[in-house]
Each structure stands twice: as C-alpha cells, then as structure tokens.
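haha ok so turns out i had the wrong file open the whole time. this is the CORRECT one, sorry everyone. sequence first:
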Amino acid sequence: MQEQDFKKGEIVIYKTPQGPEIQVKLDQNSVWLDAHFIARLFDVNRPAIVKHINNIYKSGELNKKSTCSILEQVAADGKVRKMNLYNLDMIISVGYRVNSKRATHFRIWATKTLKDHLIKGYTLNEKRLLQTQSQLKELQSAVHFLQEKSKNTLLRGQEQEILDLLAHYSNTLTLLEQYDKEKLILANKRKGHFVLEYEDAKKVIEKIKKELIAKKEASELFGQENGDKFKGILGALYQTFNGKQLYPSLEEKAAHLLYFIIKDHPFVDGNKRIGSFLFVYFLDKNNYLYRKTGEKKINDNALTALALLIAISNPVEKERLIKIITNLLSV
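then structure:
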C-alpha cells in the first residue's frame, strides 16, 4: 500500500501491487464510495457489501442520514440514475465485517492514515506523534490479538463476547479524534482505597465454594491452595520498588489479580472461577465495578471470555492482556 500525492478535489486512498487504485472525491470532511467501489476495495462481490451495509443500518451501528449520500447522474440513455455513496465511517465499518486479506490490510491502513493525514490534510506535530504512536500501536495489536485468539477451539461459543471485546478497540475514529485533541489515554490510573487482604480473600473463596458445592458445581478440591502461591499473588499486587508500587493504579491491580490467579494456578481447582469472582469483588469494593449507566464495566459473559483468553494465552502475551483489561475498565 502506498499514499499518493494529493490533487485538488480527489485523492488516491488505497493501492496495492495487485490493485485496486481508487480515486474518490473529498466532500464534507469525508471520502465517499458507492457499493461497487467498496466491493473492489475489499476484493469481494457487491451483494456482500450491500448486505453488510443493510445490517449496519438495521443494528443502528451507523445512521443512514449521516453516512449515505444520493448522487444523481445522467446515464448514456439520457435518464437520471440515482447512486448511493457511503462515507468513511461506513467504509471502515464494512471493513471490520468483511473477511478478506485486503479488508484487513485496508482497515489497518485506513484507521492509521485517513483521519489524521488524508482528511485533515496535514501531518500531526512530530512531538505529539512520538508521544502517542506507541499507544496507538498497542491498541492496534490488541485488535489482532483478539482476532487470532477467537479462532481457538476452547473459545467456541464465545464469539459474540470476543466481538464485544474487539469492538472496544475497533472504534478507531473516536480514538483518533481524541488523539488529535491530545486526550488519548490508555487507562484512567485510578487509585483504589480497598486493599484485598489474604484472610479476607479466603473468606470470599470459602463462601463461593459452599454455594457451588450446594449446587453440585464444585468439589472439595475447589479453592484448595497450592502452597503459598495465592498469598504471593496478593502480596505482588502491592509490591514496591524504590518506594513506588509496581502496579500503582486500581486498573492495573485488578488486571494482574485476574491474570495471576488464572495463569499461575494457585489453587488445585477453580482458578478461572476464583480469579473472576475476586476480580469482581475487588472492583466492587473499590466502587469501580459499574459504569455511570449502571451496567458492569465488564459483564459476566465478557469476563468469561477474558478468563478463557488468559488461560489459553502464551506468557509472553501477558502485557497485551493487561492492557486490554485496563482499557476495558477505564472506559
């Protein structure tokens, strides 16, 4: 893919050695393509594009009035034909639904380039770019991470939850607008007031165990500790170096609590469930479990998907998972 020199009133928005090269008009601070050109762009048939567009409107993901424009053209037979043109928001939304290599390439390139460079017509101040480019790369890598992990056989049945997690990172236009206003942050870095003590956590686990055994969903092995691993995990949350906490924010502590319990197996049985329960308990005690709307920051289904993601992940992917969790909590 390569960018082309701009001409007044038109730009080349996408080009690969295999094609296509598409020139479009810039209007109302966006680019506009019809379904035929979007199909060429993503290397699929036009009916598939029309289907995605209709589903996007049906679900309310985008508003037709603001993303669709009708162009009237005089055809060779002298009759006036009407053509629907769709703006950048729709092009990218369709790109996230189309399953093709070219669609993947385009959405990566488009979200990185179009909003900051093509549409606004200038490159962001170099200092600001250096300050935030690594953060944008992390967000982009999170998208790829979730896409790849969703293919794992252990995550079958969790497709919708993975898509929900992915949607948090695919809202790139909003992120780029925040980026332009120097408001992009990866987590709120809240300070928690509640400290999760070992004895307190043991009481919570024992209560959970009784309830699960009563429902015949656990055995006596549930919550049985493997040595001092669990005590070590709780201590690590508040570990300091040179007088500073290694995990200073509430989001980081919660994310590491969930990750360490699931990944380090401090219990003979029930690590994923115990990690999830304590994660929720910790957030609730810090008054950070719910959004202002009253809904959980991470609902039960999404938490199940996260627990499975952690369980199947490679240890080298730890920081990426921590970043995903802290971002989900910070919104």
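Residues 1-99 form a domain with the Mlu1-box Binding Protein; DNA-binding Domain fold (CATH 3.10.260).
again sry for the mixup
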